[in-house]
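Case study.
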Amino acid sequence: MDNNIAIKADKLTKRFGDFVAVDAITFDVKQGEIFGFVGANGAGKTTAMRILCGLSTPTSGTATVAGFDVYKDAEKIKKNIGYMSQKFSLYEDLTVMENITFYAGIYGLSDKDIKDRGAELLDRLGIAHEAKTFVGSLPLGWKQKLAFSVAVIHRPKIVFLDEPTGGVDPVTRRQFWDLIYEASDRGITVFVTTHYMDEAEYCGRVSVMVDGRIDAFDTPANLKKKFSVDSMNKVFYELARGAKRKAD
Amino acid sequence: MNSPVLKQLYAFVRKEFYHVFRDRKTLLMLFGVPIAQVLLFGFVLSNEIKNSKIVVCDYAKDYGSQEIIRKIEASKYFKVQKATLTHDQIETAMKAGDIKMAVIFPDHFYNDLSHLNKAQIQVIADASDPNTATTITSYLTNIINDYQAEALAQNNQSYTIVPQVKMLYNPELLGAPNFVPGVMALVLMLICAMMTAVAIVKEKELGTMEILLVSPLKPYLVIIAKTIPYLLVSLLNLTAILLMSVYLLDLEIKGSVVLLFAESTLFIISCLALGLLISVGSTSQMSAMMTSQMSLMLPTMMLTGFMFPIENMPFWMQGISYIVPSRYYYTIVKAVMLQGLGFSAIWRETLVLGFITLILIVINVRSFKIRLA
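After joint prediction, the assembly is written out as follows.
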């Protein structure tokens, strides 16, 4: 087992009846890397991610997450990952601090850790004065930054972000990515799905999914070189043109 | 059970209580509905009844009987018609809706009373409307007691007049005091099943359920944490209903309160399990609510015997009523609360209720695994 590999997938496949949602994908993610998982809607990104998070079992192929097998050790995987879904995932009728306490609590953090890390988190986001504000009354950008910070409060090895920046403006998105970089600097591996191609540019390496397959997998710079284009947007167009599946 | 699990559970249950106590609609549902139900059923249905038409058949025509009849006539509750009718004539008059009650004084009434200090009168009430029947019977009993008290005070005579009460058409008096067990079944069903289903579906809708499933939290902990607040609130509600019944509606709890609470807890668990089951099949809070109402509330109202006697239903409907948990709970509560019976009288119902609960839990455990796949 290579210690520098956070996630490894080999011919990972998921079928729903006749439909092959994830078609024998093979890739690996290095520790501390920001790994972009891009593809059109319905390309199979979310399904693949759900398998890696232990929410779904693959039909065939193998995968390890944080060194644990997705078939046998789903429980151990869960302890080592954080997750933020495309739906906003904090409780609006709870205050900022209550949300932090709840999520830290279900990850089994001690009271002291909850207090310390909660204060540190609020400081980093610059919202210490909002600790007792109901999350429902915060602006969306803040909520998303808070949701991300809460998703890594238990200091997981890997954090999975499923289209985390849907519906926010570019400035807030940029700030959100600053948080991702900080997490990566602290050694957390970031696995992020997105369909914003400017975000794909921020990633260390990117895999592009088309019709359940990974059709391209490299650093953004190399991908652009390979397709002789000047942006990830164009790389994506080149690849997605051949897609048979309609977006859902 | 090690302490990290308890810690997770604690964090979760606390969060659930925030949800419950911060949502006005939920609070209204939890506490407003039971109070409204009890008051509605209690006061609106058993309000004072005035000017009931009754017939008095005085076969004695003596000092005693006439004294009592005068008192009855003076009461605002009765409109008295004097006639010596036979039993058949009384029934015909009741069926025609002319009279609500017949009071019959036998021959030698005062004779018995003054010599034996003891006499009987017969009271026949039309119990097809059980509320009216019990209410006017108790008015009459009060008048007779009043007469006895006066006799004691004035003549130092200790008379005992025993009214032989006969309820026609509905001897078990389905209705009046029976609404309390019915309301208990209804309210517990509403709170436990519907609120639990809605609370879980809400997490699915918000997308937080996914976060919970990705977390190391064991699925059974999610279930337990989601249901504990409603279990506690239900017990609280039960206490409130019982207190209201005792102090507002003068309904005494004849049997063991501990037994009543133990049986209620069993019923609550079966309701929680039903709520969980509904949450599996529902994708929106709206559909969870509708499913709960159609599949739980209606059977509870219709098939427990609390509003309509089961014996009068078509055979196939009686069959369905056997799988409705509230039917058994209703029988149990009636036995314990109204008749003062002990566990030996209700062990069969308890067993069936326990069995249904067990089956529901097993189905839940299985479907939860499917949910995770």
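Observations recorded in class. Chain B is about 70% helix and 10% strand. The longest strand of chain B covers residues 118-126. We will return to this complex in the next lecture.
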